């Protein structure tokens, strides 16, 4: 029943038989949970509580590792016996190493992100929300968790941080004159005349555009410079 319910997460519109199977299997699983008995009780509760499309891949991998380690034994009359069909030592070791490898990448990326916010002074603005960890978690958890997409996570997380800081500056801290000066500076992409918080935001934005352009050149192996396009995009979407 548990596997049927899991499979029904991939139901498409019009697959009525699978929809009925999902309803039926859910009722059976809920009944099992209500009894409070069963070797896979914790696993069943997890499946019923968290829709497949709302789960975070990296955390799901950890759940699988912990469940596999906990559920490979069943209690016989006189001893515990290993269920070979549910346990593969090599697969478990590989999954653990993969989780630890990705976790190390995430920690290093978050460390670099915090270093970047401190370098440009966005972590010490004195107002608004400091969202480095929040922004990175949101990106890494929902956008992509693949190790080779590191530069994508960093670019998107930095963008989210700048947007948050700029939004707070425009909404609650900056004077009308400061906001007009910053807007015009972004439109002409020139930091002359900026100071204090306005310059912090512009410098971080300029660094982000430069980094994104460099990454594009490296990834695509082309001589096309997209920095001008990115600057034009920023000027017409964020500050007007």
From TrEMBL:
InterPro entries: Isoprenoid_synthase_dom_sf, Terpene_synth_N_sf, Terpene_synthase-like, Terpene_synthase_metal-bd, Terpenoid_cyclase/PrenylTrfase. Its cofactor is Mg(2+). Residues 122-233 form the Terpene synthase metal-binding domain. It comes from Pisum sativum. GO terms for biological process: diterpenoid biosynthetic process. Pfam families: Terpene_synth_C. One of its GO terms (molecular function) is magnesium ion binding. This is Terpene synthase metal-binding domain-containing protein. Keywords: Magnesium, Metal-binding. SUPFAM superfamilies: Terpenoid cyclases/Protein prenyltransferases (SSF48239), Terpenoid synthases (SSF48576). The keyword Glycoprotein does not apply. The keyword Magnesium applies. Coiled coil: none annotated.
């Amino acid at each position: 029943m548990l596997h049927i319910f899991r499979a029904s997460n991939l139901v498409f519109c019009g697959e009525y038989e699978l929809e009925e199977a999902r309803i039926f299997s859910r009722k059976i699983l809920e009944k099992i949970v209500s009894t409070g008995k069963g070797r896979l009780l914790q696993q069943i509760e997890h499946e019923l509580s968290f829709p497949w499309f709302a789960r975070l891949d990296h955390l799901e991998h950890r759940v699988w590792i912990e469940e596999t380690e906990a559920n490979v034994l069943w209690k016989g009359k006189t001893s515990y016996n290993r269920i070979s069909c549910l346990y593969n030592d090599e697969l478990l070791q590989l999954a653990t190493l993969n989780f630890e490898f990705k976790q190390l990448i995430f920690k290093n990326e978050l460390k670099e992100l915090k270093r970047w916010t401190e370098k440009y002074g966005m972590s010490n603005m004195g107002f608004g929300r400091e969202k480095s960890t929040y922004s990175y978690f949101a990106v890494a958890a929902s956008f992509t968790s693949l190790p080779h997409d590191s530069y994508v996570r960093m670019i998107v997380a930095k963008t989210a941080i700048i947007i948050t800081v700029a939004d707070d500056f425009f909404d609650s801290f900056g004077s009308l004159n400061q906001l007009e000066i910053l807007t015009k500076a972004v439109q002409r992409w020139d930091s002359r005349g900026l100071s204090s918080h306005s310059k912090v935001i512009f410098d971080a934005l300029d660094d982000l555009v430069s980094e994104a352009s460099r990454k594009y050149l490296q990834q695509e192996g082309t001589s096309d410079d997209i920095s001008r396009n990115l600057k034009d995009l920023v000027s017409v979407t964020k500050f007007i």
